[in-house]
Write a sequence for this structure.
C-alpha cells in the first residue's frame, strides 16, 4: 500500500459535549482536539505520526493541535519552539474561560 493511512481522527464537537464554552477555533480548543486525536491513535497502536500541512501556512492553531498530539504520547518530529506558550494553550488570554485540565482528564478517562 502506498500513500497516507488515517487511523484516528477527532473533531472539536467533542469539546461541546464536555462543557466547552466559547470558540472551537481557539488555541486551547485546537490543543484539546489534537490531544483527543493523539489518544485515539495511541489506542489503535500508533506510536509515531507525521504532520503534513500541504500548501497551507503553519498557524498557531496547527501548532497547538500538534502539541496536543505530542502530549498524548505520539512521537512526531517537531521542535518545542514551534509550540504556543502554555499560557495560550491554557486559554489565559481569552475572556471566556474553560477548564482545559477538566476536559483533558475526560479524554484520558474515556479514550483508551
Amino acid at each position: 500500500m502506498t500513500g497516507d493511512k488515517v487511523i484516528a481522527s477527532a473533531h472539536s464537537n467533542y469539546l461541546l459535549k464536555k462543557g466547552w464554552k466559547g470558540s472551537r477555533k481557539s488555541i486551547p480548543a485546537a490543543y484539546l482536539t489534537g490531544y483527543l486525536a493523539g489518544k485515539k491513535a495511541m489506542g489503535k497502536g500508533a506510536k509515531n505520526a507525521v504532520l503534513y500541512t500541504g500548501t497551507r501556512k503553519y498557524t498557531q492553531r496547527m501548532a497547538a493541535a500538534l502539541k496536543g498530539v505530542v502530549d498524548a504520547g505520539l512521537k512526531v518530529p517537531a521542535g518545542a519552539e514551534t509550540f504556543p506558550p502554555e499560557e495560550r494553550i491554557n486559554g489565559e488570554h481569552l475572556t471566556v474561560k474553560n477548564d482545559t485540565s477538566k476536559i483533558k482528564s475526560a479524554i484520558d478517562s474515556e479514550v483508551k
Q: What stands out?
A: The two ends are 27 Å apart (CA to CA). The domain at 13-110 is CATH 3.30.420.100 (Nucleotidyltransferase; domain 5). The chain has a mean pLDDT of 92. The helical segments are 13-17, 27-43, 60-72, 86-89, 100-110.
